[in-house]
Every structure is written in structure tokens, then in C-alpha cells.
């Protein structure tokens, strides 16, 4: 019971303080609207400051609500855009700003009624406790009325009816005030917390950022492995093959067990070098490291078995994994056009648009691509899917064939 009364007192303090703050918020909303209007008329500095004040005001109430409910909340960041259009971008793009405005409206809608109800119940208890013993102070034509209708004309009636009124409104406060406080506090926190859709969008944004970091790290690791294999392992294999070749030539007689072993070792070393070159090329083509994606694609189309033209937009800096995927998609598409389509012309178009690399390869061949026949399209799909990209192959019978790929490339 004691704990319950303490909770009632805490809730009363919470709601009684929330009443004037809700009234202040009511007056602040027109000022915020005026600041927004001033931003549209050229007063760009006032609106961000008003949003900052609203954020701090909402955060103070958020901490009060969390303390009442016994929960923990982490502080929210205040983003500040740069540029002439930053205030409007902040309103349109920052979900926290919209939550602040939503909280302000909800605080006014719930804080004022809950605060007035608390004033009515608690205030009546305090007023009765003070006024009942002083019933005689009131003038005869305007006596103290208790329980709403009964005038206090004597000590017995004043004390009895005062006790009943105190007990009744105390019970009302005991039952209603904590519930009102919990309702208001939970509504306050709910207004400032992201919705499930907002949480999903924020999670997608976090995953996008982490994926960009993983792609950068993966690209750097690809370059390092390619460089180590090319400059280290491959060079050692070349040296071993040369020594084996010299040893074979130094034998006076090319027959015998030793000569046979040297010949097998020499041929095995050369095969290993060929396989290593293929691994390096399929992992991260050296031409990408030397010329970048535009130069590598230009060389690729220049050496194509089908006449090809290329249209490159402004690609900017790309993760190594994305560069490699785009290179292999174009290479495989050119190979398929030369081997299977009977095309006489191929057009390659690569652009970058809002964080995505768009690659399109179109030929004028006979079409009818069948992925089950090992045309390499399945391998391209797996490579694109590994980077969370999308791939669309359009190849009706009679042609043309078009391979369109979108790869995320934000870094």
C-alpha cells in the first residue's frame, strides 16, 4: 500500500508538471510553424534552431517518461544539414524531426486532459483538507459546499462531509492518476520511437553501410591476393620452370629415369602456371588493377569476336568486387554473343545512377538463350546475387538478346 501511494505521488508530480509544459508546447507549435514559414521566405537560420529547441524539449520529456516507467532510453542525435535547402531536407528526410512534431501534438492532446484531471482530483483533496476546518470563515450567504451540494453550517457536518470528500477523491486519485501517468508516458515514448517500418528502413540503411564496408575490404583483399600471386607465387613457378628446363637441356642423354622425371616436373610446372594465371584472371583480372574498369572494358570490346561499341557514363570510384563483376558480365556476354547468337553487332552500356551500377549488353543475334545449356548465364546470376544485385535476361526467339544488371556500388 505504501508503495502504491508513492507511485501515486510520483505520477501526480509527473502529470502536474506535464500540464504547464503541454500548455507551453501549445504556444510553441505556432512559433515553429512561423519559423518554417520564415525558412521559405529566406530566414533559413531560424528554422534549424527551432528544430533543435524542439528536439531538446522532446528529449527532456522522453527522459521523464522513461524514468516514470523505469525504462532506459538512448539519446538521439540531432542532424544538421548544410546548404541552402538543408532545413527543408531535414524536415523531409530526417525521421526524428517528424517524430518530434508527432510527439508535440500528442503531448498537447494527452498532457492537458491528464494534467487537468490530476489537478481536479489532487487539488480537491488538498482544498478540502484546508477548507473544511475553516468552514466558519466563509460568509453565510456563500457557505462552503462539500460533496458538491451540501453547505457546511456546523463543525460536525463540515468535518464529516469533508472526510467523505477527501476519502472519495483520494480513492479516485489513487486509482486514476497512476494509470493516466503511465498512459501519457507510454504515449510520449511511443511517439518518439521509430515505427516497425522506420526500424526496418534504419536496419536496411545500416546493412547498406556495412555492405559497402565489406565490399571495400573485399576489394582490397582481392587486389592484395592478386598482387601476391602475380608477383610472388607465379614468379617462383616461372623460376622453377626455367631451372627445370636448364636441367633437362644439361643432360647429355635425354633418356633415362632422371630425364623423364625432369620432363614431367617441367611440364607440371608449366601447367600449374597456366592454371594460376586462370585463377588470377577469374578472381580479379590484372587489367582492372592496371587500367581501371573503363580501360579494361575498352580493351575487352576491342578484342571481341563480334564488333562491339561501348557507352560509358561517369562511373566514379567503384568497389573492386563490383568492378570485377561488371567486367566478367561484359566478358561472358561478349563470349556468348560470339559463340551462340550469330550476332553482328553488340552494344555495351554502363552508367551509374544513385548508388547503383547499371550494365546492359545487347546484341542483334538470333536470341533464344537457354540457361540450362551452360551458356554462362547461371554463373553471372550467382556473381550478381552474391553482391545483392539484380539481373534480367531478355532473349526472345529471333532476338535481340539483352542482359541488364544492377549492382549496388555505394561506398
TrEMBL record:
Keywords: ATP-binding, Kinase, Membrane, Nucleotide-binding, Phosphoprotein, Transferase, Transmembrane, Transmembrane helix, Two-component regulatory system. The chain crosses the membrane at residues 12-29, 108-138. It comes from Nonomuraea rosea. Residues 321-411 form the Histidine kinase/HSP90-like ATPase domain. One of its GO terms (molecular function) is kinase activity. SUPFAM superfamilies: ATPase domain of HSP90 chaperone/DNA topoisomerase II/histidine kinase (SSF55874). The lineage of its organism: Bacteria, Bacillati, Actinomycetota, Actinomycetes, Streptosporangiales. Its EC number is 2.7.13.3. The keyword Metal-binding does not apply. The keyword Cell wall biogenesis/degradation does not apply. Gene3D superfamilies: 1.20.5.1930, Histidine kinase-like ATPase, C-terminal domain (3.30.565.10). It catalyses: ATP + protein L-histidine = ADP + protein N-phospho-L-histidine. This is histidine kinase.
